[in-house]
Design goal:
The chain has 22 helices and 32 strands. The protein is an alpha+beta fold and 738 residues long.
């Protein structure tokens, strides 16, 4: 007989087994919400010297927790996960760093008296929660600094060095500035801390910015069986690290706009830097050129004579960031020859997934100066370079000029709003794609310049295609890419050596869409249309933008994408029908293939309602208002039951008095077409055998996913008066407003 699975999570179980028993019990006794259960753990803890009693007590706790459901244990599991995260090697270092900055001598002695890192982490969680949370912020910032996508590094060109520490930062003024630029509905808080130098990073200043997110709500099922609504503001956080020696501002946050605005606010308030005159620079380093060769040419730079430029250090990833291979040579060595000699030709550097570090040595002299000089450049990943910490402005400028000439450097430049409005249709097409990667050929077809989009932060380079598909009588199927003697071109070669002709190399370059930045750019262009702004991401493909005034009423406005995908369509329909208390709204659709309605909302195609070029806003308000008024009645079901098709595999069911229901797939459409026909014929009950005839299943439930079926049962479809019959559920229609 199979043994019953224990619902206790791995982090809770690990903490019970590893922590000092009194601390483990204290953590599990914490309740942070009224809906959390009382575990009623034993009050008396055994003598810590009695191992047998301690082990029995640990087992007793596990048995008590095993009587609860996994959902009830989830809050405790999350707390245990957080505690254990700050008890590992890097976590405890982060905790120690913050403790040394914030604790009194007595508190430091108390936490250091705990027997191990896990107990110290628990002690901080129980006795100094704010310090524990600050240590979490620092720990996550360190992780994002090395690996994360929620990270940006900005460089600031200061006229003169600024002596700065955490005590000299006006936290109140900075909080007020951030509240203003982010248009926050509630005040934010800012806390500054000094970070000591480590082997990996120079001394820095860390700022933790905490603020409330958009107002949200969830349904709460009460103990008496009734359903209530809980309104709340989710906590949001941004962590900023400023390194004076490098003049670099690093920001971790879940939004690229927040990262940019927080960095700009810090530069203005703390550093006295005029961002409007000298915007923060945001540089990206593309190391993919080194896949073809580790040799560098000697470019012409005005005012300098370059003797040589050589790669002395190259580090590549071996599958994951945790595995790397580093090759270092002397200045007189040729790194390519060394790699070929000891790692063989066609070595790992030619097949690398990506370079994590490149070191370059340059020998040069200034024109009119006989003194020979050297410059060392080290690039780490795509966002870090040692040039910014170079105190000589001429050497910094020379280094960046060389990186630019080699095609390694691309600096962030905000795209002009007028240019963004002009390319709005192409940005919508790009944002509506299922794949995150696009080719240079696709961007050329859209009329977009990839280099400009990279500078604007909307794209990142991702290497080049190695294989392409060719639809040709002579060379059919896959073809590999080979070098070409013609500049800017590559050859294609079939599986048996057939010549597939030449193609522009730029067409085969691959780019990754920066989804967050692109999304916020598109939303920013739409927002002038709104009278009330309250951006809230409800789903990766659905965002509540706010509301616009129509006929004196506030109409919710959503932005939806990928509506051509049937799974996305079904998911968003379910989400919007759950929000029907907001009233009939507008869904601005990025897709051209779309239903007419989603839940109680009118779906309007963005690209069919563009304003004239000279208009200040990108969308025509009159067109959106006309579409809303014309389709309002159907959003609430219309006058008679009907199924309106919007494609071969998608349709919308309209039933008087009910929200429109999106139907996806031939089976769902056929089922409701038959139920509607039966209702109109005066015999609403339909035998299941006739209802499912030719559909390959025995019940209408099998045509829907579990969540969708539960949402429509007894609301749109119900069992008939007799066993084995189904019928359409019909209520009373709602008239459209005048």
């Amino acid at each position: 007989m199979a043994r019953k699975a224990i619902p206790v999570g791995p982090h809770t179980h690990g903490l019970i087994e590893d922590a000092r028993i009194d601390l483990a019990r204290a953590v599990l006794a914490v309740r942070e919400g009224e809906n959390e259960p009382e575990f009623n753990l034993p009050e008396e803890v055994p003598n810590p010297l009695d191992d047998e009693s301690i082990n029995a007590f640990r087992q007793e706790i596990i048995e008590i927790l095993s009587e609860f459901d996994p959902d009830e244990l989830r809050p405790a599991e999350q707390r245990c996960r957080r505690i254990r995260a700050l008890a590992d090697s890097k976590g405890i270092t982060s905790l120690t760093t913050i403790v040394d900055k914030q604790f009194s001598e007595e508190q430091v002695r108390e936490i250091n008296s705990q027997p191990d890192p896990l107990c110290r982490s628990i002690w901080a969680f129980l006795n100094a929660r704010q310090t524990f949370e600050d240590a979490e912020s620092f720990h996550f910032a360190r992780q994002f600094r090395d690996y994360g996508k929620l990270y940006d590094a900005f460089e600031v060109e200061l006229e003169k060095a600024v002596a700065l520490d955490s005590g000299s930062i006006d936290e109140m003024a900075l909080a007020a500035k951030i509240t203003k630029v982010l248009e926050l509905k509630t005040n934010c808080t800012v806390k500054a801390l000094d970070l000591p130098a480590t082997t990996a990073h120079p001394a820095s200043i860390m700022l933790i910015v905490r603020h409330g997110g958009p107002l949200s709500s969830v349904y709460d099922h009460r103990d008496d069986g009734r359903r209530g609504t809980i309104y709340f503001r989710p906590p949001n956080e941004a962590t900023l690290i400023y390194t004076p020696s490098m003049r670099q501002i690093e920001v971790c946050a879940d939004s690229p706009v927040v990262r940019q605005e927080v960095a700009g606010s810090f530069a203005e308030i703390a550093l006295g830097h005029d961002v409007s005159q000298k915007p923060l620079t945001w540089k990206r380093y593309n190391l993919s050129r080194f896949r073809s060769s580790l040799r560098l040419d000697v470019p012409r730079i005005d005012g300098y004579e370059i003797k040589f430029a050589r790669v002395l250090e190259a580090e590549v990833r071996l599958g994951t960031w945790s595995r790397k291979l580093l090759l270092k040579v002397a200045v007189d060595d040729d790194i390519v020859d060394v790699a070929d000699r000891y790692l063989r030709p066609n070595n790992i550097f030619r097949r690398a997934d990506g370079f994590s570090r490149i070191g370059i040595a340059i020998s040069y002299n200034r024109v009119g100066d006989e003194k020979e000089r050297t410059l060392n450049i080290t690039i780490s990943g795509t966002k870090s370079c040692n040039l910014q910490s170079n105190k000589d402005p001429e050497e910094r400028n020379l280094g960046f000029a060389l990186l630019d000439a080699w095609g390694i450097l691309s600096a962030f430049q905000q795209i002009d709003p007028n240019d963004l409005r002009a390319m709005f249709p192409q940005l919508i097409d790009l944002h509506d794609r299922t794949e995150d990667e696009v080719s240079g050929a696709y961007l050329r077809e859209l009329g977009l310049d990839p280099d400009r989009l990279i500078q604007g932060g909307l794209l990142e380079r991702r290497g080049r295609q190695d294989v392409v598909l060719i639809d040709d009588d002579d060379v059919g199927g896959e073809a590999v890419i080979k070098p070409s003697a013609r500049e800017g071109m590559v050859r294609t070669e079939g599986a048996f050596g057939e010549d597939g002709g030449e193609r522009p190399a730029s067409d085969l370059e691959m780019y990754e869409i920066n989804r967050q930045w692109l999304h916020e750019t598109v939303v920013l262009l739409i927002k002038p249309l709104l009278t009330k702004r309250a951006s809230q991401i409800l789903d990766p493909d659905l965002t509540l933008l706010g509301a616009m005034q129509i006929g004196g009423a506030e109409v919710p406005v959503y932005f939806g994408r990928r509506l051509y995908d049937l799974k996305t369509l079904e998911r968003l329909d379910l989400a919007l029908r759950a929000r029907n208390q907001a009233g009939v709204g507008i869904v601005l659709a990025a897709s051209t293939e779309m239903p007419s309605h989603l839940g109680p909302n009118v779906v309007v195609p963005l690209l069919s309602n563009l304003s004239p070029e000279e208009a200040e806003i990108v969308l025509a308000r009159d067109g959106l208002e006309l579409a809303f008024r014309n389709n309002f009645s159907l959003a609430r079901g219309g006058a008679t039951p009907q199924v309106l098709r919007s494609g071969k595999q998608s349709a919308t069911l309209h039933v008087p008095g009910k929200d429109a229901l999106a139907l996806v797939g031939a089976d769902q459409i056929t089922i409701f077409e038959r139920l509607v026909a039966a209702n109109k014929a005066g015999s609403p009950d339909k035998q299941v055998k006739e209802l499912m005839d030719g559909l390959g299943s025995r019940s209408p439930q099998q045509a829907f996913r579990k969540a969708a079926w539960e949402s429509i049962l007894n609301n749109y479809i119900s069992k008939g008066a007799k066993r084995g019959y189904w019928r359409l559920v019909v209520d009373t229609p709602i008239e459209a407003p005048v």
